[in-house]
Amino acid sequence: MNEAALKLDAGVADAWSMPLAEIDVSDPARFRDNTFWPFFERLRKEDPVHWCANGMFGPYWSVTKYKDIMQVETSHQIFSSDTDLGGITIEDGNGGNGLPMFIAMDPPKHDEQRKAVSPVVSPENLAKLEGTIRSRVGEILDGLPVGETFNWVERVSIELTTQMLATLFDFPWEDRRLLTRWSDVATATPGSGIIDSYEQKRAEVMECGTYFTRLWNQRVNAEPGNDLISMMAHSDAMRQMSPEEFLGNLLLLIVGGNDTTRNSITGGLLALNENPEQYRKLRENPALITSMVPEIIRWQTPLAHMRRTAKIDTVLGGKTIRAGDKVVMWYVSGNRDEEAIERPDDFIIDRARPRQHLSFGFGIHRCVGNRLGELQLKIVWEEILKRWPDKPIEVMAEPKRVYSCFVKGYESMPVRIPA
After folding, report:
1. Cα dist. 178→185, 211, 369 in Å?
2. What does the pLDDT read at residue 151?
3. Domains in the chain, ordered, with CATH?
4. Which of 5-9, 36-40, 224-228, 327-331 has the lowest mean pLDDT?
5. Spatial distance between the Cα atoms of 246 and 295, rounded to a whole number of angstroms
6. Which of 335, 338, 328, 339 is nearest to 356 (CA)?
7. Helix/strand/coil (H, E, C) string of the chain?
C-alpha cells in the first residue's frame, strides 16, 4: 500500500472514531494529505450543520449538505459576506489580508462594483477571447516534451491561467509570473511553504498594490479600455475606491482568475487518470467535453469553502445560529451530497445534469468569471484530443496538494505524454 493510501486509511479511522464535537474540518493538513473526505461524509450523515468550538481559525459552524448551503447562499439578508464582519473565508479578513473586496460586501455596494467588471466576461468579450485562448493553449501544448516526465501544474495549468490573467488586466507580459506569485501569497498561511510569516505576506501584497497603482494611474488618464484596470478606473462605482479597496479587489480578481481554473485543469487530468474508462469514453467521443467540463469543476471543487457571518439569530438545519456566528459553507462536501447529486463520488463525464454543483457558489455572489473558466477548460481538452487522440496523458505519481482549506489545489503533478 502506498503512502497516500495509508494516510487515507488513517483519515477514515480518525473520522469515524473521534468524538463528533472534536471534528475540525478546517485543518489544512487534511487537505494537503487528501484525508478530509471521511470527515465530511460523517458530518453529512450525523451532524450536517456542525458546531466546532475549537477550530484552527476559531469557533465556526460547518454547513455540509447541498440544501443547507443553498439556504445560506440565497439568504444574504441573514448571512453577510461583509469584510468588517469577517469576510468570505474561515480565516477572518478574507484570508488574513483584512482587505475589502466586492465579493466580501453586501448589496448594494457589492452589486455596483460587480457590475463594473462584469463586461470583461460578457458573452461578446468571451467570443473575442476564444481565438486568443486557443492560440495560447496550442503553443503551450506544442512546447511540451513527449516521452519525458514533467510537471503539468507548472508547464500547463499555471502558464495558461497566468497568460489569461495578463490579458484581462493588460498586464506587462514579461512580468506576468508576478500575478501567479501574488495569487499564491494572497491565499497562503505561514507554514504552507509559500510564506514564512504574515509580515512577509503583507509586504508582498503591498508590492502588488504598488505595481498596480502605476497601471491605474496610466489607465485613469487614458481613454477607457477593455481591460479590468481601465474598467475600474472609469467606473462610477469604483473610481473613488480607497487604496485598501483597490488592492482587495485586485487580489479577488487575481485569485479568482488564477487558482480556480488552474486547479481544475490539473484536477481534470487527474480525474481522467483515476477513471480510465471515462478517459476512453472521452477519446471515443470528444463531443463529451461539453458535459465533462462542469463535471471536472464539480469533481475538483477548486475553492473548498466560502464563509458568511450571521447578522441575526436564525435556524439552519434545525440548529440555532446566533448573530455574529461564523458559518462556513463547505462546497467540497455539498458537491458530494448524495441527496442532491446521483452517485456523487463517481466521476462521470456524461452526467445528465452536470451543471448541478456548488463550485461557483450560488445567488448574488456566484463566480463572475465562471464562463471564462469553463471556456479555458473546454479549449484545453479540445486541443489535447486533437494532438494526442490515442495517447492518454499519464499521471506518473500522486500529485502534491496545497496546504489550504480554502484553495483546493495542486503544487505539482508529474505526467508523461507517451511517445
Report:
1. 10, 10, 21
2. 98
3. 3-417 (1.10.630.10)
4. 5-9
5. 34
6. 335
7. CCHHHHHHHHHHHHHHHCCHHHCCCCCHHHHHCCCCHHHHHHHHHHCCEEEECCCCCCCEEEECCHHHHHHHHCCCCCEECCHHHCCCCCCHHHHHCCCCCHHHCCCCHHHHHHHHHHHHHCHHHHHHHHHHHHHHHHHHHHCCCCCCEEEHHHHHHHHHHHHHHHHHHCCCHHHCHHHHHHHHHHCCCCCCCCCCCHHHHHHHHHHHHHHHHHHHHHHHCCCCCCCHHHHHHCCCCCCCCCHHHHHHHHHHHHHHHHHHHHHHHHHHHHHHHHCHHHHHHHHHCHHHHHHHHHHHHHHHCCECEEEEEECCCEEECCEEECCCCEEEEEHHHHCCCCCCCCCCCCCCCCCCCCCCCCCCCCHHHCCCCHHHHHHHHHHHHHHHHHHCCCCCCEECCCCEECCCCCECCEEECEEECCC
Query: Sign of torsion, CA 143 303 280 395?
Result: positive
Residue type present at position 153: V
pLDDT, one tens digit per residue, over 275-307 is 999 999 999 999 999 999 999 999 999 999 999
pTM score, two decimals? 0.91
Residue corresponding to grid cell 441573514: 78
Q: Are 319 and 90 in contact (CB under 8 A)?
A: no
